[in-house]
Request: fold
Amino acid sequence: MKALFEPESIAVVGASNDERKIGHIVFNNLIQSKFSGELYPINPKAGEILGYKAYPSLTAVPGRVEQVVVCVPSTLVPSVMEEAGIKGVEAVIVITAGFKELGKEGAKLERQVGDIAKKYGMRVLGPNCMGIMNTHHKMNGTFTNIHPMSGSIAMASQSGAVCSSMLDWSTKSRVGFSKFISVGNKVDVDEADLLAYLKDDPDTNVIGMYLEGANRGRELMKEAFRTTQVKPIIVLKSGRTSSGSKAASSHTGALSGSDKVYDAAFQQSNVIRVNTIDELFDLLQVFANMPMPKGDGLAIVTNAGGHGVMAADACSDYGLKLASFEKSTIEKLKGYLPEAANVYNPVDVLGDATAARYDFAIKTVMEDPNVSCVAVLLAPLDTVDIKAVAEHLATFGGKVSMPVVGAFVGGTKTNKGIELLHEANVPCYDSPDKAIRALGAMVRYKKMKDASTDTTPVVINGDKDRVKEIIEAVRRTGRTSMSESEGKEILRAYGVSVPVEITAKTPEEAAQAAVKIGLPVVMKIDSPDIAHKSDVGGVMVGVSSEEAVRHGFELIMSRVRSRVPGAALNGVTICQMVKGKEVLMGMTRDEQFGPVITFGLGGVFVEIMKDVAQRIAPLTKHDVDTMVRSIRSYPILTGARGGKAADIESLKDTIFKLAQIALDFPEISELEVNPVMVGDEGKGTYAVDALVVLRREN
Ligand code: COA
Reply:
């Protein structure tokens, strides 16, 4: 990776004297950026390019070549790679397009490039990329005509278009980059590799990323987690993984779309995900320029009540608290500000506020122990000297003890103030919401990082042999879908509690079973062909007499026979009726990330409510804790409105068991337990239903 970011010699294959050609632009950019190492233009026809002696091939270069930038048409790339390998090149950047993005033939060519790189032990960035910049190494090996300032943001993008937008934004916002990487098709180097390098890069304080999809999901998570222990990562993720649109036969499958998997992956690795390019810009700006807050208390200083109220409203949306000032802070503010000023948070320094009044208020609230960050709001009232306030705020650039951001809300008048602040590296936005969102992201990152000290996954020892037997038996019948009883047997083998149940083949057997188990009972159709029993009239709950059980048997069998003709019916299962709060648990397998565990509010409205959370196994206690707490209906479990608290510990324990089954048996492609009944505290958790689907063989 060092050869990619800090080479001492670079050869540009396809460098040209034709100013319109990419090979010319790349070579010229390297010269313009004042690259201090050796530069070699490679072109079989030219004698000299931009004052440098040209060589007909890489092997003709007399000295060592550490890095090669390839700018020749795609069909020539494999031969250039071979030559680079023979020359002992360490890193190759393939700018050329026309590979897997074009289909089968392109993909074949790309594989060839990857294979040659492997053969010679070279790292490859691209193909189909814009190149790489390292401003601290005076290296711009891209074909953009924008030379960004040097700074502390490393940006990696899977899209060339996003690269150019980011670079253009950086000149307007006066934001500097440490590294700028266009990753392209990722035949070799991907985001996980980049994070492993950037984590230890002393010139990088924050990493931004535009991601369409990961090649190695688990590696990305691992490197992201390690990196976020040291510096923040902000990701704008779009697009979908190839597994995303796969038809899934369980609710869990439908609920855990591929994009949700990324949410889980980012959450578990403390990565901040943003949804728009604006948000990416806004967050990078604050992370790059301001120190981390120590807590979540926000002070607002404003010259307009309305903006103050909007900022205060935004606090709860972005996880900030409006700080309560100490008495001494209030007294100090009272002593200086006019009588009409509001000295409580948000501090209103009034419409005629001078820069000195802002200054006093900001410095005073920063001394308050309950304040960890400050938002300075300004409305362009005729009475305010925007330039003077901006000049004053600009003095906070690079030397504050806590994050201070501006929100100058307006247009023509306020823009000049915003520009002035950007020049001084003080983030300033055009709305209170954006300012609070940026500060909120800092607080969120800090909280996530501080809370994720627990990195050891929970391991459960289940009866693997028993599960193997069940899987083999199901395979022998040619099925991939298990019956409910087979599914429950698997759960039992891992210590998951399931209600007592007996399968009856006749109404009389059903009545006897109900008496044995104890009335009332639940009756369910037993069929390997039916995934959602209640949808086809295959479930009766609270059946409380022998007669009702006999009748129920007939009813269920006839309903299912008419609604699902041809389904194999083993009979009706009579189950112990367990009480509790209904939740759902499940597992789907993602191609990139592995087992994705879903937890949420259960019941028949699950797909409408979509109150679920996902995590990727293996799971730590912290993962499961945050997953369970994150659903909207969590207060129902803790005993909202005088209700009893549910047995949350046994619920979590069941999640770990499910995750372990998924980890131990990759041949299980989907698993759903819906409903799971969580009893009152100390009463345990029961898997009332089980749906297990095996991966198709070959
Ligand atoms: N070694 C070195 N130079 C060679 C060569 C070789 N084996 N074979 C040809 N060249 C020279 C050419 O003679 C030419 O130089 P010249 O101008 O002096 O004649 C130069 O290399 C470039 O080759 P050319 O055939 O003119 O290609 P091009 O410049 O028109 O296009 C690419 C090459 C790589 C730019 C083009 O194929 C491409 O992929 N463009 C898209 C790039 C892109 O969008 N990437 C993704 C961004 S996100």
